[in-house]
Inverse folding.
């Protein structure tokens, strides 16, 4: 069992401060590099173009923000926001190797960004919504900072309803096997066992895809669609403000 309590903002921030140095390496290892494909699918939905101002919420070490910044040149800009300082420091170091990219970094809360309303022309959030104290508040803030008609993509693990059918029960069993027998042992090897045991605990309180659609509708999004990825192990919430 993880010592990090899902929904505890301070504990989750502490978790990501600790995992930052190994985060990209473990993501590549544990997803066989597929997380990069899923992030590009999120980016394809947002469809950023030159001149736009875009936002990467819960940006972590900045891989999606870097991709966004390459797409909005010339004339555009990207802000990467994260609650933890260590991932932001790594993101800034990576961006420093491509100084022509229009990037800024800010430490802050995705549930209360402090940005003006209708500030962004597009936004992404990868593996962040599940870690917020209140996903509904996070979606409401995301809607507030987007201009009308702007697109957003929210990528995360999919919470599977194992009671739905035999196939969903089998998928849930596989997801648990993956998290308990592959993810946690790999994290144990680099002294991050309880940090990654948190992942399964966080999924238990995460809204299902259908529930995310409902939350997004209540937040005021004009169009919402939760799209399963990786045979349903991951999910992409596609939004239009």
């Amino acid at each position: 069992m993880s010592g990090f309590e899902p929904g505890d903002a301070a504990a989750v921030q502490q978790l990501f401060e600790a995992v930052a140095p190994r985060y990209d390496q473990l993501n590549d290892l544990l997803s066989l590099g597929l997380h990069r494909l899923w992030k590009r699918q999120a980016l394809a939905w947002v469809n950023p173009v030159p001149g736009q101002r875009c936002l990467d919420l819960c940006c972590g070490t900045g891989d999606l923000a870097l991709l966004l910044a390459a797409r909005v040149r010339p004339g555009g800009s990207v802000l990467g926001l994260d609650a933890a300082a260590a991932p932001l420091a790594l993101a800034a170091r990576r961006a420093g190797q491509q100084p022509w990219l229009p990037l800024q970094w800010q430490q802050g809360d995705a549930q209360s960004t402090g940005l003006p309303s209708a500030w962004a022309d597009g936004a992404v959030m990868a593996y962040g919504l599940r870690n917020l104290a209140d996903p509904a508040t996070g979606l409401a803030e995301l809607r507030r900072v987007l201009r009308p008609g702007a697109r957003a993509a929210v990528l995360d693990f999919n919470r599977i309803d194992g009671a739905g059918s035999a196939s969903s029960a089998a998928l849930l069993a596989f997801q648990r096997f993956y998290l308990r027998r592959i993810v946690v042992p790999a994290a144990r090897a680099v002294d991050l066992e309880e940090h990654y045991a948190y992942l399964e605990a966080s999924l238990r309180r995460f809204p299902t895809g259908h529930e995310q659609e409902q939350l997004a509708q209540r937040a005021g999004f004009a169009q919402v669609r939760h799209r399963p990825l990786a045979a349903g192990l991951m999910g992409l919430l596609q939004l239009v403000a």
Observations:
- DSSP finds eight helices and seven strands in the chain.
- The CA atoms of residues 163 and 169 lie 6 Å apart.
- The radius of gyration is 17 Å.
- The longest strand covers residues 146-157.
